[in-house]
């Protein structure tokens, strides 16, 4: 067994306590083997004075949208999609997806995110990036019916199913997949039902957007006399493996339905604030036992992929939504960004314990904004930043050591992404 020992630090346990311990990892299986004192490995990472936490899980993003970071801001979701995003996305080439995904993955490794769930196009290109970069990802082709004829809309769902079957288990098992119809309002009912049936037949989840804005909720209520989540359940989109992004506008019956079915929700607070979509009832979801993870959504509506920002936003916005300063407390926010997200994606990760996936972020606490050390969980929720991450480990392999990313050429990734972004906007004529 080839091993890696992370030595000299304190570890964040899943009950949100912090204790001194080394972490021994089996690099072949990619699992955590042992926690304890004075553990030695074939390779070692120094964590003296640091906090070792589970790698963060970004449970909903569109990673290649890093190319559109700062392209169009300060608009509502519908106008932003129709006027600024969809016209540019129509001009995307596979090389753009690869360049944008590499940029996003680089940003995530630097900020301690080891897993992301991604809905986008040309996902075999994103899979290539994940393979090279060494992270973990759940990938899905985002299929949409809006603006397409029946045949093209059906072909798009079929592509989502085919890609999910093809890529599941790729990159030595680091890649899992889902069938990803875009949303309850942009895909026809018939195709939503088909997506669910095909996904479950293939043994993969369905992932989609739901209840993000009132503009999405009201038409469904008026047309069907049902809340969107009730309708989604009737279409087969609410099984234990399935999960959707946003869930901003949910009533008590829907929350109860999510809890009973085990359907996961990915809370995207920065995107919800930036697009003025609303405040998700996160504390009520947690109280009801709904699995909740955190996502950045795409970089065009955030505008970064730093999960520490998201964690802090989730804690802050959760209090505002509940009108209660004790809501979405620091441990809950940290938990959603780690074990919560891993549970939503069905992964044995997000926890530092023997037998779990060795996906870890090592936080350098030697900084003014992290001093003094009254409560390290509080620091993670309210004071830490992605740039405090010193080492990133995924599947037992070191992806970043002492802030140097080992699996990607940083300068080349940034240069290529900037060039592809310029070319993309030129082609799109904007
Ligand atoms: Zn999204």
From TrEMBL:
What is the source species? Haloplanus rubicundus
**EC number(s) given by UniProt:** 3.5.4.28, 3.5.4.31
Write the record's keywords in alphabetical order, separated by commas.
Answer: Hydrolase, Metal-binding, Zinc
Q: Where is the Amidohydrolase-related domain?
A: 51-398
Q: Where does substrate bind?
A: 89, 182, 212, 297
Domain of life of the organism encoding this protein: Archaea
Q: Which residues bind Zn(2+)?
A: 60, 62, 209, 297
> How is the cofactor bound here?
Binds 1 zinc ion per subunit.
Q: Give the GO molecular function terms.
A: 5'-methylthioadenosine deaminase activity; metal ion binding; S-adenosylhomocysteine deaminase activity
Reaction catalyzed: S-adenosyl-L-homocysteine + H2O + H(+) = S-inosyl-L-homocysteine + NH4(+); S-methyl-5'-thioadenosine + H2O + H(+) = S-methyl-5'-thioinosine + NH4(+)
What name does UniProt use for this protein? 5-methylthioadenosine/S-adenosylhomocysteine deaminase
Name the Pfam families on file: Amidohydro_1
Q: What does this protein do?
A: Catalyzes the deamination of 5-methylthioadenosine and S-adenosyl-L-homocysteine into 5-methylthioinosine and S-inosyl-L-homocysteine, respectively. Is also able to deaminate adenosine.
Entry's family note:
Belongs to the metallo-dependent hydrolases superfamily. MTA/SAH deaminase family.
Q: What InterPro entries does the entry give?
A: Amidohydro-rel (IPR006680), Deaminase_MtaD/DadD (IPR023512), Metal-dep_hydrolase_composite (IPR011059), Metal_Hydrolase (IPR032466), MTA/SAH_deaminase (IPR050287)
Names of required cofactors: Zn(2+)
